[in-house]
Design a protein that fits this description.
69% helix, 113 residues, mainly alpha, 5 helices
Length: 113
């Protein structure tokens, strides 16, 4: 049980680190997202929705349990290893992470319609 909590905390920590890395601005051309990036963006958008984060209510944040995270990973056909691989890619390429975050925003706006 403790291992699962540690994994969830690491997952949330990785999101925060990647958010800060994504803040770096450069004038490079936006990267094109591949299928793995789009899958990650879809997972992350659903994670935010289940966490209580919506486009119009960003102050209303709730924690979701490990079962929900596991279910989301399964729905989006992502393993924890695959998730970690994507986060490593985004750590190395902040412009790609920024593009993924833009895709997440687009996904949230589409769901809000």
């Amino acid at each position: 049980m403790r291992s699962r909590k540690t994994g969830i905390h690491a997952l949330c920590g990785a999101f925060l680190v990647l958010m800060f890395l994504g803040q770096g601005c450069t004038r490079n051309k936006q990267p094109v997202l591949n299928e793995a990036d789009k899958k990650f963006a879809a997972f992350y958008a659903d994670y935010l929705v289940l966490s209580g984060v919506t486009v119009g209510e960003s102050e209303n944040v709730h924690r979701i349990g490990g079962k929900h995270v596991d279910s989301l990973l399964e729905v989006h056909a992502l393993s924890l290893e695959g998730f970690n691989e994507r986060t490593d890619v985004y750590k190395e390429n902040p412009n790609l992470w920024k593009a993924v975050l833009l895709q997440v925003r687009n996904n949230l706006q589409e769901d809000d319609r």
